[in-house]
Amino acid sequence: MKREIKTTNDGSKTLFINDLNENYHSHHGALQEAEHVFIKNGLNLINDYEINILELGFGTGLNVLVTINEYLKTDKNHVINYFSLEKYPINESEVKDLAYFELFDNPEFKNIYQKIHLADWEKSVEIISGFNLKKIECDFFDLKNIDLPKINLVYFDCFGARVQPDLWEKPLFELVSDKMALNGLLTTYSSKGSVRRILQELNFQVKKKQGPPGKREMINAIKL
């Protein structure tokens, strides 16, 4: 699928898929969406010493970068193991043109950004001390065959239901739920009523939260 780079309203870039008429991130702001959905309403709500994060999917790597940025703000007395699934990895030229490291003041972020994208697939790589990344190239439905530790936090960041409706139906959420620890948190930009009902059927406590700019609501769901 042909992709092109576009600049969103907060100055950060995203990829746009012409054939699907779909952005990888909100056109209202890629960076602020990632920080609102996955940091403010995700990582910052988890207090475990060892945090196992599952991301669907890796995409441009922006969610990994904002997670590391938040991790560096802490006293770093905990460990993050980050598992990210992706079926269609972006290419070297796209990585270079997105240049997400420029969004952060930390001069180390250029090296961190490069290390994220150069990390071998299917291998756990320590990006910085205490932060381990494993990128897995696969279809999301292959999740059932992937050996993972119990997941404390899920970044459910699939393409929207308009273009990939099967990713927002019960079978995939069941696979995700099976990988999660009790009291684990799933956070997503979606607020679809059908998604809320599916998660409730799977014994999640579902909360509607204020959405990122341009979106009225989003979902947090805690596995009971």
Automatic annotation (TrEMBL):
Pfam families: Methyltransf_30
Gene Ontology terms for molecular function: oxidoreductase activity, acting on the CH-NH group of donors; tRNA (5-methylaminomethyl-2-thiouridylate)(34)-methyltransferase activity
Chain ranges of the MnmC-like methyltransferase domain: 142-223
Gene3D superfamilies attached to this UniProt entry: Vaccinia Virus protein VP39
InterPro entries xrefs: MnmC-like_methylTransf, SAM-dependent_MTases_sf, tRNA_MNMC2
PANTHER family: MNMC-LIKE METHYLTRANSFERASE DOMAIN-CONTAINING PROTEIN, SLL0983 PROTEIN
Name of protein: Peptidase
